[in-house]
């Protein structure tokens, strides 16, 4: 009998033994997939790759440039994904230059390297080589190659200039300042001018402020103008009223939003209440919503009761909803007891659900009993479920006090609003301590709502409590298939479950969905302790989906024992 016929006969016999053609094909494929574990094949491939690179590198060290170029190029073609591929590509170009220092081939090689290996540690070396070779080619009558590297020369010169710039900054003194200013006037590079501005900000001299003001108003680059505004802000404490006037002039005359934002932050960084009217005016009247929001957040950087009052006016009078939301968050971050009534009023009376939620979350950022009592009021009287859910999350974020825990537990176990109950469960899950775990277990035990009970299981797992695994395993062994499956999947979130306990679930549960969940979990465990139980499942009369899941799990385990079993099973099939 021919070999092909023998193989066909064996395949048909296999199909008959399995009594299911689709199952047999799927199992066979999964066995082969699981067997392609990377250890042996990858080790051999890595050794061959290392030897190939070492041989090519030896040619470089020996100065055998033609052979080295050939071998390095061959390495790149054969191992394009190797972590040595960029090394080999560079040394291939390097060898080409050594073979002919005035070589367009070497130039093009380095040029290709620069674009195809942007993250390589050899990229700077490649750019230096391009400049070097272009100089030689220009001297040999090919000036167009020098033109092609003009950007690289400019960049290299900028690096030198910037290095000198930082050195002068460290030295200080009027002559150093004058040299830095001179560099700004000469430079056509936006990056260099921006760096000059940052360095100027560090000179302890009011004499630089007029120059910075001129740059903030006149430089062609918006980024440089913005940097100049920030630099003025750093000089502001040492400046005069003229400095403040200049910033206000930039705020009123600039058409660039980012530059105007920079002015707002410069004014706010001084924590000077005299600037509050200016910031409030922008927040309330400026047509640009982003700028109005920036002004609102800037007000929050200024300490004092006047800033809270200004934010309240913005909350009540701003035309843009996002600006009002910004005011709410800013008020919440002030952690001022005087702001609580305002936040409660918005949360309970606003017709805008988003604003009501924002006010509720802002209360959650505040500490103290007054904020907690305010959130309890919103929880009981909020106009929408979403606002009440926000109150629950805010209570959970406040901490693990017994009042908060009691409130959340009460909501989770009472009423008939599933969404609200689940929100309470998740809020309890954000709390730490044994009290939170006990509350979640009590919710699971007392609730009759399946969604709420499943939420409790996930919250128990996320809490990473010491006894979480034991509780989840008990549920996994229970009679309710959906809850048992949820418990098994939740076990994976704990990262420290007992493999033998999961094996017992696999062996005893009558539910196929639970068995598949347990099998998946055992595969993630990567432990030999699970292998025998998985083999038992594969050799059983369990449904095909359960058996194929067990094969996949063996492949995921990937140990020598699992591999040997897969080979044995493949021989049987």
Write up this protein.
By secondary structure, the protein is an all-alpha fold. It is built from 34 helices and no strands.
Short description:
Helix content is 77%, strand content 0%. The chain has 573 residues and is mainly α.
The poorly predicted ranges are: 1-23
**Mean of all residue-level pLDDT scores:** 81
- Taking the alpha carbons of the first and last residues, their distance comes to 21 Å
Our count of helices gives 34
Number of strands: 0
User: Judging from the principal axes of the Cα atoms, what is the shape?
Assistant: flat
Rg result: 35 Å
Coarse structural class? mainly alpha
Main β-sheet: number of strands, strand sense, barrel status?
none
Helix content percent band:
over 70%
* Residues in β-strands, percent: under 5%
């Amino acid at each position: 009998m021919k070999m092909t016929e023998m193989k066909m006969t064996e395949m048909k016999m296999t199909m008959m033994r399995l009594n299911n053609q689709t199952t047999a094909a799927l199992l066979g494929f999964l066995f082969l997939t699981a067997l392609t574990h990377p250890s042996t094949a990858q080790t051999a491939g890595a050794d061959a790759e290392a030897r190939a690179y070492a041989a090519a590198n030896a040619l470089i060290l020996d100065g055998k440039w033609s052979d080295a170029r050939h071998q390095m190029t061959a390495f790149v073609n054969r191992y394009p994904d190797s972590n040595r591929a960029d090394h080999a590509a560079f040394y291939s170009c390097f060898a080409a230059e050594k073979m002919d220092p005035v070589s367009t081939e070497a130039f093009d090689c380095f040029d290709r390297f620069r674009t195809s290996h942007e993250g390589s540690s050899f990229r700077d070396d490649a750019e230096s080589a391009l400049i070097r070779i272009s100089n030689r080619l220009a001297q040999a009558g090919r000036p167009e190659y020098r033109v092609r590297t003009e950007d690289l020369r400019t960049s290299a010169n900028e690096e030198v200039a910037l290095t000198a710039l930082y050195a002068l900054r460290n030295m200080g003194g009027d002559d150093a300042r004058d040299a830095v200013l001179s560099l700004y006037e000469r430079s056509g590079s936006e990056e260099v001018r921006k760096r000059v501005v940052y360095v100027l900000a560090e000179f302890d001299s009011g004499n630089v402020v007029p120059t910075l003001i001129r740059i903030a108003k006149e430089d062609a680059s918006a980024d440089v103008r913005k940097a100049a505004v920030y630099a003025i802000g750093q000089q502001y404490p040492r400046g005069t009223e003229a400095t403040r006037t200049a910033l206000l002039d930039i705020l009123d005359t600039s058409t660039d939003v980012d530059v105007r934002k920079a002015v707002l932050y410069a004014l706010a960084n001084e924590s000077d209440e005299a600037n509050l009217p200016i910031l409030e005016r922008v927040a309330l009247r400026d047509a640009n919503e982003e700028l109005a929001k920036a002004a609102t957040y800037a007000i929050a950087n200024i300490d004092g009761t006047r800033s809270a009052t200004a934010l309240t006016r913005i909350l009540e009078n701003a035309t843009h909803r996002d600006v009002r939301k910004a005011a709410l968050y800013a008020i919440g971050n002030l952690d001022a007891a005087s702001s609580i009534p305002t936040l409660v009023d918005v949360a309970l009376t606003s017709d805008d659900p988003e604003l009501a939620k924002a006010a509720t979350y802002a209360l959650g950022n505040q500490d103290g009993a007054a904020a907690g009592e305010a959130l309890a009021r919103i929880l009981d009287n909020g106009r929408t479920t979403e606002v009440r859910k926000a109150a629950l999350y805010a209570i959970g974020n406040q901490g693990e006090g017994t009042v908060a825990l009691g409130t959340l537990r009460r909501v989770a176990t009472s009423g008939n609003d599933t969404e609200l109950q689940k929100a309470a469960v998740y809020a309890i899950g954000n709390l730490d301590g044994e009290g939170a775990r006990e509350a979640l277990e009590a919710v699971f035990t007392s609730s009759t709502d399946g969604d709420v009970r499943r939420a409790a299981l996930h919250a128990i797992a996320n809490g990473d409590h010491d006894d979480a695994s034991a509780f989840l395993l008990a549920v996994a062994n229970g009679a309710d298939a959906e809850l048992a499956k949820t418990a098994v999947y939740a076990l994976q979130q704990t990262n420290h479950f007992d493999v033998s306990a999961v094996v017992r679930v696999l062996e005893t549960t009558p539910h196929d969905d639970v068995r598949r969940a347990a099998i998946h979990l055992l595969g993630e465990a990567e432990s030999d302790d699970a292998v025998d139980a998985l083999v038992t499942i594969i050799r059983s009369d369990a449904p095909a989906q359960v058996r194929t899941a067990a094969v996949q799990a063996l492949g995921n385990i990937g140990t020598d024992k699992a591999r040997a079993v897969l080979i044995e099973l493949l021989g049987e099939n």
